[in-house]
Specification:
Radius of gyration of chain A: 27 Å
Strand order of the largest sheet of chain A: 6-7-8-13-14
Number of helices of chain A: 15
Largest interface: A-B, 139 and 132 residues
Radius of gyration of chain B: 25 Å
Structural class of chain A: alpha+beta
Number of helices of chain B: 11
Largest sheet of chain B: 5 strands, antiparallel
Shape of chain B: globular
Number of strands of chain A: 14
Order of helices and strands of chain B: HEEEEHEEHHHEEHHEEHEEHHH
CATH class of the largest domain in chain A: Alpha Beta
Largest sheet of chain A: 5 strands, mixed
Number of strands of chain B: 12
Shape of chain A: globular
Strand order of the largest sheet of chain B: 1-2-3-6-5
CATH topology of the largest domain in chain A: Sulfite Reductase Hemoprotein, domain 1
Number of domains of chain A: 3
Oligomer: heterodimer
């Protein structure tokens, strides 16, 4: 594979941010197919269109997904990327690694692939970028036999779940996001590897409403940690903040002089429900009015902690714009205990109620958020066996186009116009 | 024994899932999981977490290109072996984090990282600009309207000082998607860079038979612009589709479904800028990003128009917003008319919603501010 001239890409080797071009060139020393990656990308920079053919269906026996097939549209010029399939490898919760594990995976990829990767794909997978069809099964054999690791998901199935860092290195996490993510990933291996759904379906697990894995925007079932008792206040630490001895927001604004910390201005006046005040030098919170937005806790991490009665809010239906517009997940279960002790029984039951229904009524390539829009939230709640509550809406409807079921209306829908006419002549 | 293509199901192992996370925990993480009390950012890129046991863990966060080689990952491993007992992690925004269990171990690690040129820039914490969540672009995808890695490199070079400092009113999340499938976080980011097309698909009648399930292509259109049609190929009448050009807004979803409907174009394709999205629930609700610049050209290799637009928006926000105010909170407080004025962005009809629930985005009040837009 010849070295290609890359005058356009060479210009991306300057500047302070790490250069993917420099990295590709370094890898090309031992993996000459990287020159063809650079070559075909240079051509795209010249032509300003992609040079990958449409689609590509490849995989490994036993699975219906996990590998994204891809072929170059100029294979003669760039034989190193004639086949350029991507392998999705299931990543560990929170993306912690040992160097032993990563080195072994890199050795496998050196043997079977292009030498390029993405750490990580947006859904969470380790992305191994570029290999030939005949390498897929040998790679999969080595991955499962030598490393005990598996592929991630692709296609109309449960995609690879992901989580925020959770209890492992955050004081705010209200449940064990790592264990929830791991447990449900293992529990639903069949649904991940063999597409059986109308369309794709994603889980994401965030430990608190800061939502560091963007669950509310990027997953069909969004499990977001919260609490239902009082914010824990350390009044001595509050005094330290007021005295200026602790930096607000963990020091996250230290690069600019924002003046002395002002608890009234920076915390009390910014609370979205106005439920905080100072009294006799102590910070007071009316927790019954608190919506647990995290602002005060974020500003004073050494003085305020989430409550001790912890669980998660479950929201459903986020998706990107195609087809009917982007959606965030909408609140369905305000509070659920999410615990390893009962093997996440309640959450699993909830998920399976959705699947039982959506797999039946969901149209071809219809995300569950769109199915919910099509049938309406009241119908979805009924299907799920969930009582409607005010928390399910931001505001009540303003149009009067209300459906009533026949059995809800006295006398039913069957009527005789003759009888009506006896009281009301035409 | 390895894979035997003659007996593909022999010895096959499947449904293993990911490795258990706990085996990859640094000892200090394993010992203190669920016991953390508070944290502090000791300097840009360095976090300290304090446990109820008294233990501390220092995390050093470095930017990465996301598209990285095995040689790069091995270099990451070399660093983790030398300084971090052989453990490391990646963040949800594709930064890499090295963790050490005492303050004394921080500076030697920082010095080592700095000695490696610009491969491991330390930062991405607090009220700054962190890594750009992005997609495949021309490196691997068949539907992009722009590249991902190149645009991200060009933008991060320009905003680099914001990665290594914490001078903004709040954190600014920038995301890029190379088409409106919006893989990633473009629909909910402070500043979003989105690849867009501006020409309807071409129809390859000679190939459509056999490569395309026509009802799928028809159903794939959000605006009902794709209709069944007939065409003559080599004297034979075939079933195909036609596109009502007046209804097509160039989303490309029909091409996703049907290989015979390509629409990429060097002059037509480019970038739109959206702003004001967020996912956290802090103070205000999560917000979608809104389209403020409908088109910037694909000027390879450094996209100067896009870089300048992102920088201008960021600097207008930095100069004007209140502490803790996300970009969308700021724009909503001052009003979008002021946003356009302060950012010096021309307002066009392309920013006015005309899709389905568009009415909810129009201004049904007499409350507005007089800006230079009112002549």
């Amino acid at each position: 594979m010849a070295k290609h001239e890359t005058p356009l890409l060479d210009q991306l080797e300057t500047g302070p941010w790490p250069s993917f071009v420099t990295d590709l060139k370094r890898q090309a020393a031992t993996k000459p197919e990287c020159w063809d990656i650079l070559g075909i990308l240079e051509l795209s920079y010249k032509d300003r269109i992609t040079h990958w053919k449409h689609g590509g269906i490849v995989g490994v026996f036993g699975y219906g997904g996990g590998i994204v097939g891809r072929y170059a549209d100029m294979p003669k010029q760039f034989p190193g990327v004639e086949h350029f399939h991507t392998i999705r490898v299931a990543q560990p919760s929170s993306k912690y690694y040992s160097t032993a594990n990563l080195r072994q995976l890199m050795d496998l990829w050196e043997k079977h692939g292009s030498g390029m990767t993405n750490f990580h794909g947006s859904t969470g997978d380790i992305i191994l970028l570029g290999t030939r069809t005949e390498n897929l099964e040998p790679f999969f054999w080595d991955l499962t036999h030598d490393m005990g690791q598996d592929l991630g998901g692709s296609g109309s199935n449960l995609r690879t779940p992901a989580n925020c860092i959770g209890h492992s290195r955050c004081e705010w996490s209200c449940y064990d996001t790592e264990e929830a993510c791991y447990h449900l990933t293992q529990h639903y291996q069949d649904e991940i590897h063999r597409p059986a759904f109308p369309y794709k379906f994603k889980f994401k697990f965030s430990g608190c409403p800061n939502d560091c894995v963007a669950a509310i925007a990027r997953s069909d079932v969004s499990v977001i940690g919260t609490w239902r008792d009082e914010i824990r206040i350390d009044q001595a630490a509050v005094k330290e903040y007021v005295a200026g001895n602790y930096p607000p927001n963990g020091g996250s604004h230290s690069g600019k002089d924002w003046g002395k910390f002002d608890i009234q201005k920076e915390v009390i006046d910014l609370c979205p429900t106005d439920c905080m005040w100072m009294e006799g030098g102590e910070l007071k919170i009316d927790d019954t009015e608190c919506t647990r937005c995290m602002h005060c806790i974020n500003v004073m991490p050494r003085a305020l902690r989430p409550g001790a009665d912890q669980g998660a809010s479950i929201c459903v239906g986020a998706k990107a714009p195609i087809l009917d517009g982007a959606q965030f997940s909408t609140l369905i279960v305000p509070f659920m205990k999410v615990e390893k002790e009962n093997e996440f029984e309640e959450l699993i039951e909830f998920i399976e109620s959705i699947w039982d229904w959506w797999m039946e009524v969901g149209k071809n390539r219809e995300r569950v958020g769109e199915t919910m829009q099509r049938v309406g939230l009241p119908t979805f709640l009924k299907v799920m066996g969930i009582e409607p509550i005010p928390q399910h809406v931001k505001e009540p409807r303003s149009n009067p186009y209300v459906f009533w079921k026949e059995e809800e209306v006295e006398g039913g829908f069957e009527r005789d116009v003759e009888e009506f006419r006896r009281k009301h002549a035409a | 024994m390895g894979y035997n293509p003659d007996k593909p199901m022999d010895g096959r192992i499947s449904d293993l899932g990911p490795p258990h996370y706990e085996q990859f925990f640094p000892p200090v993480i394993k010992a203190n999981k669920g016991k953390w009390l508070w944290h502090e950012i000791t300097q840009p890129g360095v976090l300290m977490h304090k446990s109820e046991t008294g233990d501390e863990v220092y995390s050093i966060r470095c930017g990465t290109a996301r598209l990285v080689s095995i040689e790069y990952i091995r270099e990451v491993c070399d660093i983790a072996d030398e300084f971090c007992d052989g453990y490391l992690r990646f963040t949800t925004r594709n930064n890499v984090e090295f963790m050490v269990d005492s303050k004394e171990k921080v500076q030697p690690l920082l010095d080592n990282l700095a000695s490696r040129g610009n491969k491991f820039p330390v930062g991405g914490t607090g009220a700054g600009v962190t890594n750009i969540v992005h997609t495949q672009g021309w490196v691997h995808c068949h539907t992009p309207a722009t590249d991902a890695s190149g645009v991200v490199k060009a933008v991060m070079d320009e905003l680099f000082d914001y990665f290594t400092s914490m001078t903004l009113p709040a954190q600014v999340r920038i995301a890029l998607a190379c088409c409106l499938n919006m893989c990633g976080a473009v629909h909910a980011s402070d500043i979003a860079i989105l690849g867009v097309h501006r020409k309807p698909p071409m129809i390859d009648h000679t190939r459509i038979t056999g490569v395309c399930e026509l009802p799928l292509a028809i159903a794939s259109c959000p605006l009902g612009a794709v209709k069944p049609a007939k065409a003559t190929v080599d004297g034979k009448e075939i079933k195909t589709v036609q596109v009502n050009v007046d209804r097509c807004m160039f989303c490309g979803n029909c091409y996703t479904m049907c290989p015979a409907m390509p629409l990429a174009d060097p002059e037509g394709d480019g970038i739109a800028i959206l702003v004001g999205g967020k996912v956290s629930n802090r103070i205000s609700h999560p917000k979608f990003s809104k389209l403020v610049i409908p088109f910037l050209p694909n000027t390879t290799p450094r996209w100067p128009e896009t870089v300048a637009a992102v920088k201008k928006i960021l600097e207008a926000y930095a100069a004007d917003a209140n502490k803790y105010e996300r970009l969308g909170d700021w724009a909503e407080r001052i009003g979008w008319e002021k946003f356009f004025e302060k950012c010096d962005i021309p307002f066009t009809d392309k920013s006015i919603d005309d899709y389905r629930l568009a009415y909810d985005t129009w201004r049904t009040t007499t409350q507005f501010k007089y800006t230079s837009h009112i002549k």
